[in-house]
Design a protein that fits this description.
The protein is mostly helical. 71% of the residues lie in helices and 0% in strands. The chain has helices at residues 7-14, 18-34, 39-46, 54-60, 63-66, 69-76, 79-91, 93-103, 107-118, 129-138, 143-158. Helix 7 packs across helix 9 and helix 10 (129-138) runs antiparallel to helix 11 (143-158). The longest helix has 17 residues, at 18-34. It is globular, with a radius of gyration of 18 Å.
Length: 160
């Protein structure tokens, strides 16, 4: 089923006054500092960040929402990806065991998602992550979720 992009939502992000984004950034800065991100980390990461309305459109045009499941899987799963996944399971065995024990996430699921999302690190995104997360943390239908993702990203940045 194809999901429609709410036109008003795209227009709001595309034409959002700087004051709206600025107000959102102030709120995010406060929330991030309460959750352990230093003001310095936040300010450095957000220097020059402007909203990117194409991120919202791209989120609604991902192939998993447009392609029948078996066609989607046929593109993603082949013998090479399976072999790479098995190799990553062996290579990262200790880390994956730790993830399973501490977080309760099955190692096979972690490796499968890793393969689908980045082909095990071979394919990285083209959009700046902080800018994209800041955009969807301030505009769109899942702001609360993406605020948490942005704060988690800032904590990673802060930890080096």
């Amino acid at each position: 089923m194809k999901r429609a992009i709410p036109v008003l939502l795209l227009l709001a992000a595309a034409e959002a006054p700087a004051a709206d984004f600025g107000a959102c950034m102030k709120e995010l800065r406060r929330e991030a500092t309460v959750k352990g991100v230093t003001p310095q980390t936040f300010d450095q990461a957000m220097t020059g960040v402007e909203p990117d309305p194409t991120v919202i459109e791209a989120m609604d045009n991902q192939p998993e929402f447009k392609t029948p499941v078996w066609d989607y899987l046929a593109v993603l799963v082949d013998e090479q990806r399976i072999a790479d996944g098995r190799a990553k399971l062996a290579e990262w065995s200790a880390v994956l065991a730790d993830v399973e024990a501490k977080l309760g996430v099955d190692r096979h699921t972690v490796v499968a998602v890793w393969g689908v999302e980045s082909d095990y690190g071979r394919t990285m995104g083209t959009r700046p992550l902080v800018r994209s997360l800041a955009t969807v943390a301030c505009f769109g239908t899942r702001q609360r979720f993406f605020r948490g993702e942005l704060i988690a990203t800032l904590k990673i940045v802060q930890s080096g």
